[in-house]
Amino acid sequence: MKSNALIFCIAVSVFLLAVSGCGANPGGGQDAGEAPIAADESVRYNHVDFVMGTVVDITLYAKGADKTNEIPPILSEIENKLISWRNDDSELARINKGAGSPMEISDEMKNYLENAIAIAANSGGAFDPTVGGLSRLWDFDNEEEIIPGQEAIAELLNHVGYEKIAVEGNTISLTGGVSIDLGGIGKGIGCDEVQKYLEENEEITGALINIGGSSTVVYGAKASGEPWKIALQNPRDSAGYAGALTLAGTHYISTSGDYEKYFEKDGKRYHHILDPATGYPAESGLMSVTVAASSGALSDALSTACFVLGKEKSMALLSKYDAEAVFIGSDKNITVTDGLKENFELMSDDYRVV
Fold first, then answer.
1. Does residue 179 sit in helix, strand or coil?
2. pLDDT tens per residue, range 235-264
């Protein structure tokens, strides 16, 4: 059973709970139950779009006009101009085509790649941007649900390894056959770029941007002053929540789970989070990991790395980046790191916090 269709449900459900806890307000205006907002106070505006191949939920609290429609073009430009391997005109696609020969890259791409390589190194390769060939081999966007052959996986593993990328100044060199995929960090990059836009617009006093149900940035505050409430998807119930995080101020949150893109054969679940060491979907005893970190790109990459590593091996990595996490195990036990314990609320009787 392919689960790509769940993305819309996941994104919308996170959005509804995170914005107000009581329903959406697509036309803009005040939160339900709040007192009337004066002319010089922030008004809530909502917009849902489809960008970066997924549903994007946008909520802005602003003094003045609705600017929600200015967010999607920012994300679209990042995808199409820089990080999409599918778009032949993107910078990443050109880098992959030129593998084996040095080439010049933009400052933006240099920054993205250097961050990705650093996280790959610190995670022992659990997060690795060179899994592009393997990702395309598995092709979880294809409805055919094919398990690749061992020989094909073994051949592509020869071209996996963050050490095969060399960035010196604005010049990149890839070992021949290497294919970079920034999908494990792309939505987080989108959150970071949107954050820059929010900071440049003083009339925006608060925002919640959710990209595909897996990467979220919350910024500032709601008009009511209430904290943000971010729902965590129940990995085995697309209509339910396992828990929620209540957070004040600006935060970056990303989730990696085995329910986002997957299929099942002979009673086994094959999901899109690949272990770079084996070439197969990671088996770490987890159903999902949610990470809160100092940037969107960092939270996105760490959630992938932690899912591959498993709970115990993730702790040192999280500590290195001063990040926090919520682990949902296959045994339905939930582990919350110390920095988020006071912010977490269990919302399903199917799980228990340990």
1. coil
2. 999 899 999 999 999 999 999 999 999 999
